[in-house]
Write a structure and sequence with these properties.
single chain; 373 residues; P-loop_NTPase; DgcN-like_C; DgcN-like
């Protein structure tokens, strides 16, 4: 059944295309439930959102402010999405006013912050007055609906692959989303389990916002999401989106992902030009070697491939790094936004014979169908 998408305007003032604008970037690139009709960022007004991200033209305009967007669009969007992921705990007074204005125009509010708008007395009152909904993506399940780890993950007898990284906001979700598409395109039934607010906003059916959960339940909630995907979908492979980095001192989510999903393999995402961890200018980036050693020392999983983030690098520099990494680490390495997921699909089919068998079967069926035609 085809999902009827809601139209949405994304607020990303002064952050679109930057690290803290990753929610907006993810939704511009992919969403199963929203049709993005515009982005608000006064610094980039007049540009195309896809082109700003270095992708092809998306025909999603960037507006200077809310007034300009509403006067330019043919209809008022269904939703107003707060599309930034800052370290700040609370939104600014100016941002509050814009949310209230969007409510007054009849737009539902989609919020990915830890600050729950539905629990804000003013927002809750205005939502009733204007008959709009507030959706707090990161709000955890109630205590009675929470899950602890059970060990039932051992019953998942298909490949589970985690896409981890060396830092926050380095492309883990993008690689997971694109690899999921690529696996489906070669005939595999692939399911993506997401672990952050953007993936849930993009409409993935299975997942939890790991960093919003009580630590007692974080691992169990992810285990439950993987088991639900396995039992409900009967997939050939499950991908799990990573969060932060195992080595990152500020966050625990990646360790929880390793424990909760018990992956059969890891794809490691890395931004080679990044010198310091994003939002932490005093913390040096880890090396790929150290991150691989850490992942493999605290889990039974092995890193199977490396995916690169090409921020601040030329095409020539990326190609040189790919050649260097493949020589040094003996691991397939690619930049999926520039060169696609072929290497990643190949390494998975090489490591897991059942996947390769199903891919070959699909190709034979396609050849037979062409012959009939």
């Amino acid at each position: 059944m085809k999902i009827l998408k809601k139209t949405a305007l994304i607020y990303c003032e002064k952050e679109f295309g930057l690290i803290d604008g990753k929610v907006a970037a993810g939704l511009v690139r992919h969403s199963e439930i929203y049709t993005i009709v515009g982005v608000i960022d006064s610094l980039l007004a007049g540009k195309d959102a896809g082109e700003v991200l270095g992708d092809k033209k998306s025909n999603i305009p960037i507006f200077a402010n809310l007034d300009e967007s509403l006067s330019s669009l043919s209809t008022i969007p269904d939703c107003y999405i707060y599309g930034k992921a800052p370290l700040d705990i609370y939104i600014s007074e100016e941002e509050r006013c814009l949310i209230l204005e969007a409510m007054g125009k009849g737009m539902d509010i989609i919020n990915g912050l830890h600050q729950f708008f539905s629990e804000d007395p003013e927002f809750a009152r205005m939502a009733i007055e204007y008959d709009v909904k507030i959706k707090d993506i990161r709000k955890p399940p109630s205590l009675k609906d929470s899950h602890v780890f059970t060990g039932q993950i051992s019953k998942v007898n298909i490949p589970v692959i985690a896409v981890l990284g060396t830092d926050c906001a380095c492309g883990k979700r993008t690689t997971a989303v694109e690899l999921n598409k690529a696996l489906k395109n070669v005939g595999l039934k692939s399911v993506l389990v997401v672990t952050g607010q953007t993936g849930l906003m993009q409409g993935e059916k299975y997942g939890v916002s790991m960093d919003a959960l009580i630590s007692q339940f974080a691992i169990g909630e992810l285990e439950n999401a993987v088991i639900q995907a396995f039992e409900t979908e009967n997939p050939d492979i499950i991908l799990v989106e990573g969060q932060s980095a195992v080595s990152h001192p500020a966050f625990m989510s990646s360790i929880g992902i390793l424990k909760g999903s018990v992956p059969n393999g890891v794809i490691l995402q890395h931004p080679p030009a990044r010198k310091f961890r994003c939002d932490f200018p005093d913390l040096l980036m880890p090396t790929v070697e150290k991150e691989i050693q850490l992942i493999e020392s605290i889990s039974q999983s092995q890193v199977m491939a490396i995916a690169l983030n090409h921020e601040n690098l030329t095409r020539e520099e990326i190609l040189t790094i790919i050649e260097d990494y493949e020589g040094r680490f003996r691991l397939p390495t690619t930049d999926i936004l520039n060169y696609g997921c072929q290497k990643l699909v190949q390494v998975l089919s090489d490591r897991f014979p059942n996947l390769n068998h199903k891919i070959m079967q699909r190709r034979l069926e396609e050849i037979a169908l062409l012959a009939v035609r």
